[in-house]
Each structure stands twice: as structure tokens, then as C-alpha cells.
Amino acid sequence: MKRAFFFLISLLAALLPQSHADNIFRDGDVFEMRLSGPPEEFTREFSLVLTVDEGSVNLPLVGRIRAVGLSSTGLATMIEKRLKDEKIFTVANVNITLNQNTPNQQRVFIVGGSVRAPGRQPWIADLTLTGAISGAGGPTEWAADGVKIVRAGRAQKFSRKALKKDPSQDPKVLPGDIIEVEGE
Q1: Euclidean distance between CA atoms 64 and 57, whole angstroms
Q2: Domain boundary assignment for the chain
């Protein structure tokens, strides 16, 4: 009964619209930046379409700013701070809109190992490791307790039993994650 409940919750979450603030930037992401606050004639050169390249973006008068690993809100805050610190503007409100229509913007993760439906899965905000495994059909009868997440070249192991006992420890899945449910 619990498995069916978690699968239903995962399915409903997939159907709900996602917040762009929850997206984490990675290389190749394209976004639109708009600056407000100062008069428009001073902010035109800051209305840009930018691409994250080698981990950062290049802004006029400011230079390169690290973007990879930041949310759109975090990046906007960093750009606002840089514009003020460099004394380019005293008031700067940055709005960032992620361009979801480019091919690089597909947000996916992979679930493999001892699950019933291994493969690429669409990423949704607030999805946890347990939810991702449920979304892949759940563990097979040969699944072991261990689960591994590979993120940015680093592997981290979890116990499915421990996550079931304490759901607050269930990590969120991020785009690009590779999840491997160990088998016996």
C-alpha cells in the first residue's frame, strides 16, 4: 500500500508545473537576463540571452560570473551584488528566466541496477531518491539495501531501510544524477 502511495505522489509531482527557481545551472544552459531598477536607457545592455560556458557567464562591464551549481535566484543575487560592488548601479534587480525550449535544457537523471524499469527519467523539482526509485518501478526482488548516487563524478551510498525509517534523510535528486540500486 505504501509503495502505491509513493508511486502516486511521484506521478502527481511529475504532472505539476515546475518552478524555475528550483533549477540548478549547468554548462550549456541558456537563460534570459533582464535588469530593472535604473532607468531603461541605462539597463538595455543588460537585457541579454546568455549561455553557461565552462561554468560561468560573461556579462558586460562585470566580466565572468560563476553560474554552474547555482539556482536562478542564487545567480540573480550574485549578479546584483557584483553590479553594486563594482559601483555600476546602486539599485539592481536581476530577473533570470531559464530557456526550457533548447535541446540542452532536458533535465533528466538515470536510474539503473535492480529496479523494474531502468533508464532515463525526467527530473522534477523536489524529487527524492526514494521517489526516483519508485518512479522506476521500484526495486526488484533481487535488490539489496544499498543505493548509490553518482553526482558530478562523486559517489555517495545510502541505505533504503535507513531512508524508510527516517525520510528526512532522503536526498533530493538533481538533473544529471546516476542512481544505481545494488543487487544481491
Answers
A1: 5
A2: 2-14+107-183, 24-102
Residue 114 half-sphere exposure toward CB, CA atoms < 13 A: 15
User: Distance between CA atoms of 131 and 166, rounded to whole angstroms?
Assistant: 14
The tens digit of pLDDT for each residue in 137-169 reads 999 999 999 999 998 778 999 999 999 999 999
- 161's CB contacts (< 8 A; 6+ apart) are 145
* Mean pLDDT of all residues belonging to the chain: 82
Q: Which CATH class is domain 24-102?
A: alpha beta
pTM flag (> 0.70): no
For 2-14+107-183, the fitting CATH number among 3.10.560.10, 3.60.20.30, 1.10.260.40, 1.20.120.920 is: 3.10.560.10
